[in-house]
């Protein structure tokens, strides 16, 4: 494990920023940490759902000699955001975390039922081509 004070890969010479991180993101993140930013976040009306996809390590990790079996995303609700959906991949598997404010998103059970139904449809669709090719 590298020392906590080592230079992050993104700060090393010759390392490019990801294309998905526009230059305005850094200043906005810093602004959000100020009293003015927190005031705005609590009152904004432009966003009510946040969805994010975090690409994790493709292989199993070890921590202090023990294998890490699972990594699960934990997302908190900020300001007046009512729902956060976060997918996180780890060692070939994907976890989906749903965080909701009951007052701002009272139909969470409807969403979760629909998601479970859609997961079943996707699983069936994945299995169907294999059966269809065997029948042909």
What does this entry look like structurally?
Residues 1-8 have low confidence and may be disordered. A hairpin with a 2-residue loop joins β2 and β3. This protein has 136 residues and is an alpha+beta fold. Strands 1-4-5 form a 3-stranded mixed sheet, with no helix packed on it. It has a two-stranded antiparallel sheet with strand order 2-3. The protein has helices at 25-32, 35-43, 108-135, and strands spanning 49-54, 62-63, 66-67, 83-90, 93-100. It contains 3 helices and 5 strands; from the N terminus they run ααβββββα. Helices cover 33% and strands 19% of the residues.
Biggest sheet strand line-up: 1-4-5
Rg over alpha carbons: 20 Å
Number of helices in the DSSP assignment: 3
Q: Regions with pLDDT < 50 over 5+ consecutive residues?
A: 1-8
What is the makeup of the main sheet? Answer: 3 strands, mixed
Structural class: alpha+beta
Strand content: 15-25%
What are the secondary-structure elements, in order, as H or E? HHEEEEEH
- Tell me the overall shape: extended
Number of strands: 5
Which percent range fits the helix content? 25-40%
End-to-end span in angstroms?
52 Å
Give the mean pLDDT: 79
